[in-house]
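Intended use. Records like the one below are meant for learning the mapping from a protein sequence to its folded structure. Do not use them to infer anything beyond what is encoded.
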Amino acid sequence: MNAPQVREMTLADCDRVAEIRVGGRQWAYRGLMPQAHLDAMSPSEDAERHRTRFRQARPGVLNLVAEQEGETVGWLCHGPCRDGEAPPGSAELYAIYVDPVRSGAGVGQALLGESIRRCSAAGHARMYLWVLRDNARARRFYERSGFRADGVEEPYEVAGVAVPEVRYVRELTG
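Structure written out for the chain above:
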C-alpha cells in the first residue's frame, strides 16, 4: 500500500470527511461515550454542518485530508488556539480522524506530521490539543508524536455522562 498523500480539503470532500468523522468517532469513542449518542450520529447531518463551517472558516483554520490509493482516508483540522490560557500565537489541533479500516497504516501520522510542519512554518511556537482522558489509544498516538499532557484537565459531558478531557502540548520551534 502506498504512503498517504496529504492535501488541503475542498468543499467537495465534505461528504467523505463526514463519513470518516462519524465512523472514526463511533470506533474511537466506543466504551468512552454513551453508545446511544454514538449510534445517533449521522454522516449526512455531519456533512451539512461541516459544509457550513468550511464555508465560514475563521482565518488561520486549515482542513487537511489524506488520500491513499485514490481514496480519502483521513481528515485533520487545525487553527489558532482557542484556549485563553495558552500563550498568544499558539496553534491548536481541533480534530483528527482516520477511516477505522486504515487505523495503524500511517494515515494519522501523515496528517499530523503535515499539520505540525505547516504550523511550525507559520511561526507557531507550540501546538495544543484536547483528548478524552480515558482514550488511551489516542493518547499514545499523540505521545509518540512528541505531545505531552501538561496537567490541565477540563470537564466535558456527553448525553449526561462525564468524559473529561486532558490538554496536550508540543513545542514546535526553538
